[in-house]
Design a protein that fits this description.
- α2 crosses α5, α3 packs antiparallel against α4 and α5 runs antiparallel to α6.
- This protein is α+β, with helices and mostly antiparallel strands.
- The protein contains seven helices and 14 strands.
- It folds into two domains: about 180 residues, no CATH class; about 110 residues, no CATH class.
- Strands 4, 5, 6, 7, 8, 9 and 10 form a seven-stranded antiparallel sheet that branches. The protein has a three-stranded antiparallel sheet with strand order 1-2-3, with no helix packed on it. Strands 11-14 form a two-stranded antiparallel sheet.
- The longest helix has 28 residues.
- The chain is about 35% helix and about 25% strand.
- β8 and β9 form a beta hairpin.
- The two termini are about 30 Å apart.
- The C terminus is likely disordered.
Length: about 300
C-alpha cells in the first residue's frame, strides 16, 4: 500500500459479511438459495448474494485505487477528492480532480480539468469500474472519456491490477491532453445551425418510445430543456454573453450541443429522485449513445469513425 490519505476513509470505516437468511417462521433458508450481505456495525442488510460470493471491503478497494493513481504519475498538486457513500453503504463513488492539468477550450474562460471517477457497490448496482475524463468548471459538467481509456471492471479486488490500472490512467491523461483536447476544440469551431441541433436531439436524447403507437416520438419537454441550455451556451460562448438577449443567436457549435447534453446528465434534481446517483449513470449511458449515433457523427464529420470523447 502506497497511500491512503486521498479519499475520506472515515466514510468507509465498516466491514460487510455474509449471513444466513430465515423464513418468517424462523426456519433457516438453504444457503445454496442465497445469503444476505450485512454491515457488521449496524447489521443492516445490503443485498442478497450467492453462497460462494466473497465480500470485498471498501477500504481494500479504495486503497488499491489510491495506489493506482499514485503509480500513474498524474500531477497531484492541488488535487480535490470526493468520497460519496450512498444507500447506507450499498454504493460508493470516488471522484478526484487534478487542476494542475487544467486546459482551456476555445477561449480562456472555458476551462476543463482532468477528473477521475470510480464506482463500486455492495448491492450489485455497480461493479468496480473506473474512468478518467474531464470536468468543466464553467458550468460544473462532468465530461468522461467514453472510449474508457482508463476503464477497468471486475467484481472483486483479486481481479483489480494496480499496475494495469495505473497505466490506463496515465494513457487516458495523455490522450486528454493531446488528441482529446484537439477533438473538443474542433467541436468548439464547428458551427451548426439551430434547426440541425433540434433534429439531432430529437433523434437521440429527446427521443422516446410511444407505447400506444409503438413508434419513436420526440419528448418535447426534454427537447425544450436541451435547447434552452444550448441557446445559453451559444450566447455566452459565441455571442455577446450577458450583453446579448436570450435566443438572439440562431446557431451555435457542437461544443454547445455537447455541453447541453452533459449538463442534463450531470444535473439531477434530488427532489425528483431518491437515487440521483443511479439516474446520473443512466443518463451518462444515453449521452454516450448519442455521441456514437449517426446523427452526431455526421455533424462531427467523422461518420465512419467511432466517437472517442463521451460524456457523463
Amino acid at each position: 500500500m502506497l497511500n491512503n490519505n486521498m479519499f475520506d476513509h472515515s466514510k468507509i470505516d465498516f466491514t460487510v459479511s455474509k449471513h444466513p437468511m430465515y423464513q418468517a417462521n424462523g426456519d433457516a433458508i438453504d444457503p445454496a438459495i442465497g445469503m444476505v450481505l450485512k454491515r457488521e456495525d449496524s447489521m443492516e442488510p445490503l443485498s442478497v448474494v450467492s453462497e460462494g460470493y466473497t465480500p470485498v471491503q471498501y477500504h481494500d478497494i479504495v486503497s488499491q485505487v489510491e495506489d493506482g493513481l499514485i503509480e500513474s504519475g498524474i500531477n497531484m498538486a492541488g488535487a480535490e477528492f470526493f468520497t460519496g457513500v450512498f444507500n447506507n453503504g450499498s454504493q460508493l463513488e470516488l471522484r478526484a480532480k487534478f487542476p494542475a492539468h487544467e486546459q482551456s477550450i476555445g477561449r480562456l474562460t472555458d476551462m476543463v480539468v482532468p477528473q477521475f471517477v470510480f464506482r463500486t457497490s455492495h448491492n450489485k448496482t455497480w461493479g468496480n469500474n473506473g474512468m478518467v475524463g474531464l470536468w468543466r468548471s464553467m458550468c460544473w459538467n462532468t465530461l468522461v472519456s467514453g472510449s474508457k481509456l482508463a476503464y477497468t471492471y471486475g467484481r472483486h479486488t483479486k481481479g483489480f491490477s494496480v499496475p494495469t490500472f495505473a497505466a490506463k490512467v496515465k494513457n487516458a491523461a495523455e490522450y486528454i491532453a493531446g488528441d482529446g483536447m484537439t477533438q473538443m476544440n474542433n467541436w468548439f469551431d464547428t458551427m451548426i445551425d439551430r434547426d440541425t441541433i433540434i433534429d439531432m436531439f430529437s433523434e437521440t436524447l429527446a427521443s422516446r418510445m410511444d407505447n400506444v403507437k409503438r413508434t419513436k416520438v420526440t419528448n418535447k419537454v426534454m427537447l425544450s430543456h436541451l435547447m434552452k441550455i444550448f441557446d445559453e451556451e451559444a450566447r455566452h460562448l459565441h455571442g455577446k454573453s450577458a450583453y446579448g438577449s436570450y435566443a438572439s443567436n440562431t446557431n451555435g457549435s457542437l461544443w454547445c450541443a455537447y455541453n447541453a447534453a452533459t449538463h442534463w446528465s450531470s444535473h439531477v434534481s434530488e427532489s425528483k429522485s431518491d437515487t440521483p446517483q443511479n439516474v446520473r449513470v443512466t443518463r451518462e449511458d444515453r449521452v454516450k449513445k448519442m455521441l456514437a449515433s449517426p446523427e452526431w457523427l455526421s455533424l462531427e464529420g467523422t461518420s465512419n469513425e467511432p466517437a472517442t470523447m463521451l460524456a457523463a
